[in-house]
What does this fold into?
Amino acid sequence: MNRVGVVGAGTMGNGIAQVFATQGTAVTLVDVAPAVIQKALGTIEKSVRKLAEKAGKDANAVAPEVMGRISTSGTLDVLGGCDLVVEAVFEDFEVKKQVLPKIDAVIPEAAILATNTSSISITKLAALTKRPERVIGMHFMNPVPLMSLVEIIRGHLTSDATTNAVLETVKALGKVPVPANDYPGFVANRILMPMINEGVYCLMEGVATAADIDQVMKLGANHPMGPLALADLIGLDVCLAIMDVLHRELGDSKYRPCPLLRRMVAAGLLGRKTKRGFYQY
Ligand code: NAD
It folds into this structure.
């Protein structure tokens, strides 16, 4: 890929832009919120420096080189030269419904339009565009620069050529692509989110404190971080949106979002990004 576009510069978008730029690809990062773009550039530079230092490289040489490959914009019309665009806007079908046709209209006919959605049907998102055979799910994990997995989800009409190109692209990033079929939540969130939701139920019902729930899963299941700390990292709004999709699409009451999760999102306690969730930051 010569130029990659990333739409949405939030938690995931800035990480996705970072890994492509680090690998040597020119990146155009788009977000409607100028403050988010400024924050994203700061986050990327800090992370690039940290990773360079960890690898024993000169951060003062690496950082300007990587940052020099990233251009930013508040509008989508700059995506005309991209071979691949990764959409990473809010996990809300109505928002994606607004954005995807606009991206589809400005990018080259041969370009691939990938979505980083955590749970929404790729087939349904692809149907919003005029290129369903070149739409695919590219589900990066958070934090993107550190996590090697990328779930690759084909929509009903996604072509072999698109799938192969994306598999190669993910490998070139040094990451591991794993195919999953187009079911709500795919594999990662079908398993992870009900666990997080159950952790919130444990907290709501007073089974244990947040710190103790996390400690149990760290020491008892060997997880690197507990479910509530992970929810804060992911964003409570994102967790709720995914649980709502699982509940609605799979129609099983076992996926009902915990009322405490819903209440915290309503209160604006979204986790790390708002400095307060199950923990204070
Ligand atoms: P986020 O809320 O941190 O960022 C979303 C960004 O999209 C915001 O900065 C917002 O300003 C921007 N945006 C909204 N509408 C836009 C538009 N029309 N044009 C351009 N930008 C627009 O969300 P996130 O956590 O980064 O999630 C993004 C996507 O990645 C979602 O589909 C989510 O499900 C998925 N995802 C999230 C995680 C996670 O851990 N947070 C992990 C994997 C996948």
Notes: The domain at 3-180 is CATH 3.40.50.720 (Rossmann fold).
